[in-house]
Amino acid sequence: MAEHLLEVKGLKQHFPIKTGFFQKTMLKAVDGVSFTIDQGETLGLVGESGCGKTTVGRSILRLYTPTAGSVKYKGEEIDDHNIQRFRREMQVVFQDPYSSLNPRMTVGDIVGEPLDIHKLYKNDKEREEKVAHLLQLVGLNADHKRRYAHEFSGGQRQRIGIARALAVNPEFIVCDEPVSALDVSIQAQIINTFEELQEKLGLAYLFIAHDLHVVHHMSRRVAVMYLGKIVEMAPADEIISGPRHPYTQSLMSAIPIPDPIKARDRHRVVLEGEVPSPLNLPSGCSFRTRCRYAIERCEIETPELMETSPGHEAACWNPQ
Amino acid sequence: MSQTLLQVKDLHTIFPIESGEVRAVNGINFSLDRGKVLGIVGESGSGKSVTAYSILRILDNPGKISQGEILFEEEDIVRMPPGRIRQIRGDKISIIFQDPMTSLNPVFTVGNQLTEAIRLHTRRNRRQARERALEMLRLVGVNEPAKRLKQYPHQLSGGMRQRVMIAMAMACEPDILIADEPTTALDVTIQAQILELMLELKDKLGMSIIMITHDLGVIAEMCDEIIVMYAGRICERGTAEEIFYNPRHEYTKGLLRSIPKITVGHEKLTPIGGSPVDLLNMPSGCAFSARCDQAMKVCLTQQPEEIWVAKDHLASCWLNIRDGVRYEAGEGGGTNG
User: Is residue A272 one of the residues assigned to a domain?
Assistant: First the structure.
């Protein structure tokens, strides 16, 4: 059996929330998520705010300690004791290029810090060379290392964040909404940078975003999340051409199309109501309160991901 | 020409700061007809929000309108006394801000904030104003409106807060609704609901809408006419079809090329190179020339003039002048400012 680079099984991440003076409720941010990512592959993760997509990324990297489930990297289970070793192989690029860079550090120190932590150089000269190389790799100038983060535009800052992630020479990067804070024209530059780096360095990405356009463009496979669960997972093209889960369908039809004639002609399935509170989930399938195709079974039993066609899975009792 | 509701003529808005003068809006002209949706697209710093704030004269310090006229029903907003502009704000022209999280006052209830606007602009007493507020909340699709009136903004979700903002903006049935990135902070499914609602209310109340956004998808769905802004200037304008299917400015073309398409298969994106212009050091020629791969010598030194390139379609680009793209019978076009 070919080994997956990353294997996530039944990942759960619950947070205790104070609901009263003595009461606590569990907020089930991620509730049983499983997927795999192969070497050099991109898995896209889409969903609306509060669906738990960011938490999935953070739990994999152990920025949170998962409540249950296992995360295996190259077949080896990650736990609290060996995570330091895995941080050389797994890195993250955050959403907000404004708050994820320390304003009091120079760019050279921001990019060089991972090298310091993991002791990846022999002398200062080598460190400097490595930093210069990293900056060039992401399309910045090596002279930029003496400047501070505030001197750069949003797109350039995101490049600094990418250079920092690449410093330890990882094989897997969690990209948590890396382009959503950027203007469209800059977004395309950064997306292309991610793609070029993947080709050059053989990186695997978990690409998290709320924008289905961007996720589809970046990924080979796409997983759609709703309220802590993956509701559909399929090859990227199939997600857009033949979504099976009613939630994916309404998500697809809610996306504005940048084409006036097509936009006017299409038939829209506008979802009623809002996402239920994750503290008080409906029984059975959590989408059933907004679903047009809900049947009796949806209220009683929670659907798990089931294969509807090869490589295409949906968690729905009444797939369309 | 009673159709024209708002006319902006040669508007310049500047922000004098220590290190110089930021020319946020740099001589723009446009007009808005009754019952139409006008879209303004551009990236951050292109001057689209400043244009909106200039129309309502709600610019942040030290911003000021240095030149130009904004005619609303033949009356110049720029030279209006403060008392008169206060009558127009909220009553005739109202605005929905981008961020529903911060544009409501956290220490007053939703009902308090809604009725304040209604009582200020109409001769309703407290009870009538409350009824009007309830009616508006129902109209924008807020469930349990009576309960919501007693709640504070933090007790509502983002979508609900944005609905409250819309209800507030529409409570006095304005002639013009300015929507400044009204759905950027919201999820797509909620965005679809809000956009649908705005179009529905527009038809019901006969308003005009100025839709400001950087999302070309939203523009394509909502707008009759589109203005593309770059560095405080209008680089191209026209009907939605013209702008999307026949763009005549390199910036617009670049924007359209750089959005990922939802179609089967993988196409590499063609981004616009470089970074946005520094508004403190604007080039003397076309502001986009530094990022334009078709730039000629003349682009660097001289500002291109706006010409008709097709019916209902104007663009400011030297390439059109070089290639002799010109639409002669342009005087009949609807977008002439």
Answer: yes
